[in-house]
Amino acid sequence: MLVATAANMQFVMQELCNSFSENTGITCELIHSSSGKLTAQILAGAPYDIFASADLKYPTELYQKGKTDQAPLIYAKGKLVLWTVVESIKPNLHTLSKSETKRIAMANPKTAPYGRAAKEVLEKKKIPLEEKLVYGESISQVNQFVLSKAVEVGFTAKSVVLFKQQGEWTEVPLTLYNPIKQGVVSIKNGKNSTQNARLFLAFLFSEEGKKILQKYDCL
Questions:
Q1: Are 157 and 169 in contact (CB under 8 A)?
Q2: What is the pLDDT of residues 40-92, one digit of tens each?
Q3: If we measure between CA atoms, which residue out of 92, 217, 114 comes closest to residue 159?
C-alpha cells in the first residue's frame, strides 16, 4: 500500500505505518513531499492509496474533483517551531532580525502549509526578512538546511524536532498563524484495494494510532 504524506509528518507517519504493518501484515511504502506537490501527482494519476496532507485545503480539492473515497478527515493538528543546531543562536522571533542570524529557512508557502504558516507569522509580526529567507521545497528540505547548518534557523514542525532531539527549538505562539488542521483521505486511483486503505484509516483513528500521534504532540 502506498501512503503519500506531507513532509512534516514523515517520521510520525513512518512509525504509524510500521505499527499498522505489524498489526495487519499489510506492507506500507511511504512517499513524502510537500502537500501541494503530492496533490499535483495524485491529479496526474499517481497510484497512492492514502494521502495525509499538512492541511485541509489540498485533500478537500481532491475530494471536490472526485479523486477520493470520502471527504477529508482531520487526523492531526500541526504546531510550528523555530529550530537551530547552531549553539550560539537562540531560536526565537527576536533572534530572526539580529545580525548573527544571516539565513532563515522556511518551506515554500505556495505548496507547503507550514511555509504558509511561517509567512503568516512574519507578516503578523511585521518582521522584514526577505533578504535572509531561504526556501525549501518542503519541510524535509528545511530540516536538511537546519541540520547541515546551511541556515542558522528554520521554521519547521514540532513533530520533527521531537523526533530528531537535536539542537534547540522554540514553539511559535499559536495566535500568530491559522490553525494547521491536517486532513487525510483515501485515493480512488490507489493501486491496492480500497479495503487496505479503510483499514489504515481505522488504525489512524484507533487508540494505538492516537498514542503515536500524541507522542509527537500532533493532537
A1: no
A2: 999 999 999 999 999 999 999 999 999 999 999 999 999 999 999 999 999 99
A3: 217
For residue 154, give the 3-state DSSP assignment: strand
* Strand arrangement, sheet containing 168-171: 133-136, 104-107, 153-157, 80-84, 168-171
73/32 same-domain check: yes
**Max Cα–Cα distance, the chain, nearest Å:** 55
Question: Are 85 and 168 within one domain?
Answer: yes
Q: Identify any residues that bridge with 52 across adjacent strands, giving them in sequence order.
A: 5, 184
- Distance between alpha carbon 162 and the CA centroid of its chain, in Å? 13
Domain shared by 138 and 101, yes or no = yes
Q: How far apart are CA 50 and CA 187, in angstroms?
A: 6
Domain count, the chain: 2
Judge whether 171 and 81 are in contact, CB under 8 Å.
yes
Same domain, 117 and 73: no
